[in-house]
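As a warm-up, study this chain.
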Amino acid sequence: MTAQDDWSEAGVNILAPELLTKVRNMLEREPIILEHRLYAGSAAPLMLIFDDYDEFVRHLESRAGPGDRLLMWGYSGLCRDDNIAVDAKYPDAAGRTPRGGSY
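Now compare it with the structure written out below.
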């Protein structure tokens, strides 16, 4: 922690009950995408998807540290069939992929 980053008790705190409630409500509707940016850029951001509130909380308890920034988006608003960047299939041993399939 550095003094120049202006630490404050009035800052946005992910453990605040109203924010945890917001996350829980989001997860009741859809999975969330989390970008977990580590304070002071000590490593590359973690990019995760959660569909369970308790797993999200376990992540906070085990991986989050003071000052980490947590950015979240609803999965269905971003991951749609009309904006797929790559659509591919994994081949069999002969290099073939199915033209159809039950997805």
